[in-house]
Design brief:
InterPro entries: DUF7707. The protein has one domain (21-193). Residues 1-17 and 136-194 have low confidence and may be disordered. It has a two-stranded antiparallel ribbon. The longest helix is centred in the first third of the chain and has 18 residues, at 37-54. The chain is 45% helix and 7% strand. It is mainly alpha-helical and 194 residues long. The protein has six helices and two strands. It has helices at 2-16, 37-54, 91-106, 111-120, 139-151, 178-193, and strands spanning 59-65, 70-75.
């Protein structure tokens, strides 16, 4: 009996190890071959647009390679990267949403593992729109938004305002401010409890 229980526990641990445990969307990686070429091109265009917005159109480095989904974003003001993990329309967020979608598909029929997909992946995906993204008439941005929505559904931020802070050696963080940050934490806690 004890052997059977130990074997069952070991099997459950082995299965739950299938869902990676990330600490940020910045450390998530994906096999670029699992994403269509056109979709990667759209992601890269959105990434460079968002980098420009977050750096107030004054970038030192701003690039994205669709072949391997590598990117660079450095603001000229202080030679540091902005807080891309907080914003939609960035490669880290597109990768996060795609990993979440793949995790749900891979673990179809297993609600426990799908819950881990939510807590270990989806909860780390950004929901804050970049500043001025709503005013953009660019079809590329609209296509990227539609693509991201198709990949997975994420909660919309309840507040569109952001604050920008900076200090020596650090780029503007452009983190969600005030009620938006509290709402993001509340949504994360709600998702965790569900």
């Amino acid at each position: 009996m004890r052997f059977s229980l130990a074997l069952l526990t070991a099997a459950a641990v082995a299965v739950s190890a299938d869902v990676a445990n990330y600490t940020s969307s910045l450390n998530m990686t994906i096999d670029p071959g699992t994403v269509e070429t056109q979709e990667r091109a759209t992601w890269c265009q959105a990434q460079t647009n968002t980098c420009s917005l977050l750096c107030d159109n004054d970038t030192e480095e701003n690039g994205c390679t669709q072949g391997d989904l590598s990117w660079e974003c450095t603001c000229s003001s202080n030679s540091s990267a902005p807080g891309l993990q907080y914003y939609t329309q960035t490669v880290p967020t597109f990768i996060c949403q795609e990993l979440y979608s793949q995790c749900i598909t891979t673990n179809a029929g297993d609600s426990t593992l799908q819950e881990e997909c939510v807590t270990n992946i989806q909860d780390l995906c950004a929901t804050q729109n970049p500043p001025d993204a709503d005013d953009s008439s660019s079809s590329t941005t609209e296509t990227a938004t539609a693509t991201a929505t198709k990949s997975s559904s994420t909660a919309e931020a309840t507040e569109d305002s952001v604050t920008s802070t900076s200090s020596d050696g650090f780029a503007p963080t452009m983190a969600p401010a005030g009620k938006g940050a509290a709402a993001a934490v509340a949504l994360g806690m709600l998702a965790y409890l569900v």
